[in-house]
């Protein structure tokens, strides 16, 4: 009976007299990383580092694709930092299957280093450039395809289009 009262008191915002605070529980997540691994030693080093994290349920490594999949009650940013702490180059998995992209061979999505059946997860045709964070925010506000004016030149709906065709 006492446990029930403490539970209801906790739900209503009371301390229950014991000072226990309810922690927000993390969601079960699947985090995919691209980690450069050349040999079994690299693989073992990454596996042991990620397996030692609190909340990790499983670690799967595909060395051929250089893909690491971590399942558990963890945050993606912490998993990435832990993978980078091994000294290996690590980043979030940047690829998606061909079937999820409408134009997989457009500049910006096609990547010859991608595993078979995968392309970059960028929006096709959009230019992604590096720079300061402020520049990137400005570019995100004015995002557009770099050659839209060329395709609009022959568009029937454009009153100023070329009429030679």
From TrEMBL:
Keyword tags: Cadmium, Lipoprotein, Membrane, Metal-binding, Methylation, Prenylation
GO cellular component: membrane
Pfam families found in the cross-reference section: HMA (PF00403)
Compartments reported by the entry: Membrane
CDD domains xref list: HMA
Domain of life of the organism encoding this protein: Eukaryota
Molecular-function GO terms, alphabetical: metal ion binding
Family (UniProt): Belongs to the HIPP family.
Protein name: Heavy metal-associated isoprenylated plant protein 20
Lineage: Eukaryota, Viridiplantae, Streptophyta, Embryophyta, Tracheophyta
